[in-house]
């Protein structure tokens, strides 16, 4: 092992120690609260921590590994598409977070499936809604988590000069430890540390690329390889029409506002938080990280024959960065991917240990037992996701991420987003979740319509079902309503 590999291992050990220490500190903080400390950080997140965890979770593995790979294969259209995430997150923070936060506090909701159940009347039908929402969340976010584990494993393997499986096991083990210890408090605190490193990595990467190549030469080289890279005539991979890339903006807004692992941040913020401050921090961090996909175009010019587009970022770091700087930036990118992985793991574990438990068995009186169940779920589902990654067939990271997150978005839009402004019925919420799930899932798996069209059509179908079924139920005599 050479000196730089030893340097990388040293960085890894130090930062893993820091993350576990933050998990330990957050566990002590969490123990001052009830189960809500594990699930929603005791509703204690301030402006910068809230913004940090939102941006870190939203960009992370997608922004640093998946998106450069998509840019390498499809061109600059992905740079534009990725840039829409920053303004979308700002809009979600400024114009939706307060509504969801206030209603959740009024009802005492600690998860998004619980919010859905309580928002639609509770009772037996509420337990059904909570259980169905939890099951859909677990299934789809485990798919997404599989892609995140592969992403962090790929980068860690090349960084540490070990096998993919060894890297994945190492990375996931640390995520399990600090998430198990501190719940959402640990996730948010570690995300904030991570996003600072991500921002620094973005600055270094952009400076290296822009100072190492003439822009005219860069443009000419890409046009010689494939004119579609800079002047696309289709919207691939988002759809046939070039205009479909603009659908990323509403998709990204709903991504930030509706998905359980994103929306839970709104529930975890302080009740009196200044949302305009959160919005400013999100805008600055998000705009900076939105430029990372340009790496894909840089590598396409220098290394035009990559067998695997998802290797664009690892190849960039290996060939165009000094080994010491490469080690530091790779660490920050690993941080980025961990920030989504820990959020997904926390949400899946919460849906299992809290929502499925309440749906099937009802509450437990002992808070210590509830907390123990939460922690056991983190370990069990972390191991399950790791096994899924180890035995999954080959897949493109970005596509698998959209399959999981996009289909979940289509399932949740009615009972989470629309219900915040217009109250539907429990039956409307149930049918909307199922129709969104099957519509988006079918189109992503079997219809060649692009990556965004399927989830967005699923959102439309789900929304129509939510409103239509709810109106139909209201027309029934009171004796025939089930809610």
Task: Report what the structure shows.
The chain is mainly α. The chain has one domain: Up-down Bundle (Sodium/glucose cotransporter), CATH 1.20.1730.10. The termini are far apart. It has 20 helices and no strands. Helix 8 packs across helix 9 and helix 8 runs antiparallel to helix 16.
Measured on Cα atoms, how large is the radius of gyration? 22 Å
How many DSSP E strands?
0
**Overall number of structural domains:** 1
Spell out the helices and strands N to C: HHHHHHHHHHHHHHHHHHHH
Structural class: mainly alpha
CATH architecture assignment: Up-down Bundle
- Uncertain runs are none
In the CATH scheme, what's the topology name? Sodium/glucose cotransporter
Tell me roughly what share of residues is in helical segments: over 70%
Major pleated sheet: none
Strand content: under 5%
Cα shape: globular
Query: CATH homologous superfamily, by name?
Result: Sodium/glucose cotransporter
Helix count? 20
In whole angstroms, the N-to-C terminal distance is 64 Å
CATH class: Mainly Alpha
The overall pLDDT average reads 88
